[in-house]
Design a protein that fits this description.
GO terms for molecular function: heme binding; iron ion binding; monooxygenase activity; oxidoreductase activity, acting on paired donors, with incorporation or reduction of molecular oxygen. Belongs to the cytochrome P450 family. It holds the Pfam family p450. The chain has a domain at about 120-360 and about 405-495: Orthogonal Bundle (Cytochrome p450), CATH 1.10.630.10. The strands form three sheets. The protein has a five-stranded mixed β-sheet. The chain has a three-stranded antiparallel β-sheet with strand order 4-10-9. Strands 6-7 form a two-stranded antiparallel sheet. The chain is about 50% helix and about 10% strand. The relative contact order is 0.15. It has helices at about 1-25, 25-30, 45-50, 55-65, 85-95, 125-135, 140-165, 170-185, 200-205, 215-225, 225-230, 245-260, 265-275, 280-310, 315-330, 335-340, 345-355, 395-400, 415-420, 420-425, 440-455; strands at about 70-75, 80-85, 100-105, 165-170, 365, 370-375, 380-385, 390-395, 460-465, 490-495. The N and C termini lie far apart (about 90 Å). By secondary structure, it is of the alpha+beta class. A hairpin with a 5-residue loop joins strand 6 (about 370-375) and strand 7. It is built from 21 helices and ten strands. Helix 7 (about 140-165) crosses helix 8 (about 170-185), helix 13 runs antiparallel to helix 14 and helix 14 (about 280-310) crosses helix 17.
Length: about 500
């Protein structure tokens, strides 16, 4: 019996090793440059042992194969292609989107009942229907309604700074601001973000940006081993969405129905969906949580980096303040939609922040059917390569954002680069994604950042506190660009009207 079991183990081991070695010849057979894999791990050993994040592996490959439009690596044993050529990237995200229409991340309803209904995680027809429903909620007409709400939150932010102290932590401040806007503009509710120490919007958001190493491992299993994820019932959010959020959404909907209340906000859109189709509670809360994910955490991270960048440069800050003063004077002190559009330099500062501090360092897609991609093989000959169905597609946004071919002196914070040819320069910034899968809340995010800049810079000048560590570093085990150490900002009273 022992001999039999030993034989089975040996045969099984041989089969597995043969399979992996054959698998690891995938890019070699195609004459495509690639990072050398290790048995079982592929190129993920440093990720597994928490030595490096996945995006760092990809960026190192970008430097090694900088002369090639694409290169290969292995996410364990799954072939993964990393694109570096901007035209090839645009082709896959826009022109040939139907070959790469799915995000690599998908979830199951039984383990992630709320995240399951987010358009980011949906595929195929379900994604198209959700996209069709949600897109109209972020049109300029809808966003105009939100401007007064954002202004009021901005005033509360300024008062909070005045009441507290001159030095405040940027991420905490940004989370209070974006959380309150989501609650007010999305659900018509006060989150009391500038009253309570741990307001409800921030309490709900804690799970999204959790930094536990176990969470990192769960995310890795969930992302790269979907079969194992289903077997072990690994959840991306699961219980991290507190019951209070579900109660808030459902109770507010019920209150509006009973009292026949209608408001031009996101929750009213959810109510209108309910009248046109049968929706489960999970689906209702999932749609509501879509706004929360798009409007709260990623926006608060971007705002944190914006405060950090503006506080670092007195010159940039003074240009912003001068533009805000002139535009507000032209509009008699009214922050209208038209006034916000005229804040060109503030807009450039936001996009330069997005370039240097994108919330996500990578975009991940899944090849849904075989695709012929033009490339240069490892012998530097022009050829085509077949990207097979099931291959992971990586777009290294950070590598593109720091590529001197697209952005001169990429290590320098220089907003003026977006003033000379804004459409061209913005096309090289992929922080919001591109094509049909572009972030739905991008205009919402930029709008709330602009309103915040007007509110703060109209009353204060910003300086980095001496305790703030420079340069900016992100937490290694968080998929988002969360700062590793506190970003402390000194707020010095300096009203524009004086």
């Amino acid at each position: 019996m022992l001999i039999f079991l030993t034989s089975v183990v040996l045969v099984a081991s041989f089969v597995v090793i043969y399979f992996l070695k054959s698998r690891y010849e995938y890019w070699e057979r195609r004459n495509i440059p690639y990072l050398q894999p290790r048995l079982f791990f592929g190129n993920m050993a440093d990720v597994v042992f928490l030595r490096k994040p996945f995006y760092q592996i990809c960026l190192e490959g970008c430097k090694k194969f900088s002369d090639f439009p694409l290169y290969g690596l292995f996410s364990f044993w799954t072939p993964t292609v990393v694109l570096q050529d901007i035209e090839l990237i645009r082709s896959t995200l826009i022109k040939n989107f139907n070959y790469f229409e799915d995000h690599f991340l998908t979830v199951e309803h039984d383990t992630d009942p709320i995240l399951y209904f987010n358009p980011m995680c949906l595929t195929g027809e379900a994604w198209r229907n959700a996209r069709l429903n949600v897109t109209p909620q972020f049109t300029p007409g809808k966003l105009k309604y939100i401007i007064p709400v954002m202004q009021n939150v901005g005033k509360d932010l300024v008062k909070y700074i005045s009441d507290k102290q001159t030095c405040l932590e940027a991420k905490n401040l940004a989370s209070r601001y974006t959380g309150e806007i989501v609650f007010m503009a999305g659900f018509g509710l006060e989150g009391k973000s500038f009253v309570n120490d741990t307001p409800i919007p921030m309490e709900i958001g804690f799970g999204i940006s959790a930094n536990e190493k176990m969470m990192h491992i769960k995310h890795m299993i969930g992302t790269f081993f979907p079969s194992l994820r289903r077997l072990l019932k690994v959840s991306f959010l699961g219980n991290q969405v507190p019951p209070s959020f579900r109660d808030i959404v459902l109770n507010t909907i019920e209150y509006r129905k009973v009292n026949k209340i209608s408001r031009p906000d996101y929750l009213n859109f959810v109510i209108s969906l309910m009248s046109n189709k049968d929706m489960t509670e999970d689906e209702i809360v999932g749609y509501a949580y879509t706004l929360y994910l798009d409007g709260y955490e990623t926006s608060s991270i971007l705002l944190t980096c914006l405060l950090y960048s503006v506080a670092q440069s007195a010159t940039v800050q003074e240009k912003c303040r001068r533009e805000i003063r002139d535009v507000m004077k032209n509009y008699q002190g009214q922050l209208t939609h038209e006034a916000i559009v005229e804040l060109k330099y503030v807009d450039a500062v936001i996009f330069e922040t997005l370039r240097m501090h994108s919330p996500l360092a990578l975009l991940l897609r899944l090849c849904t059917k075989n695709f012929q991609a033009p490339c240069i093989d490892k012998h530097h000959k022009q050829t085509d390569v077949t990207i097979d169905k099931g291959t992971i597609l990586v777009i290294p946004t950070k590598a593109i954002h720091y590529n001197p071919t697209f952005h001169e002196n990429p290590e320098t914070f220089y907003p003026e680069r977006f003033l000379n040819d804004p459409l061209l320069q913005k096309s090289y910034v992929l922080g919001f994604g591109e094509g049909p899968r572009i972030c739905l809340g991008r205009n919402f995010a930029v709008l709330q950042l602009k309103v915040c800049m007007v509110a703060l810079l109209s009353e204060y000048s910003l300086k980095l506190n001496e305790k703030t560590i420079v340069p900016y570093e992100k937490l290694m085990h968080n998929i988002l660009n969360v700062p590793k150490s506190p970003i402390l900002i000194d707020f010095v009273k300096a009203p524009l009207h004086e």
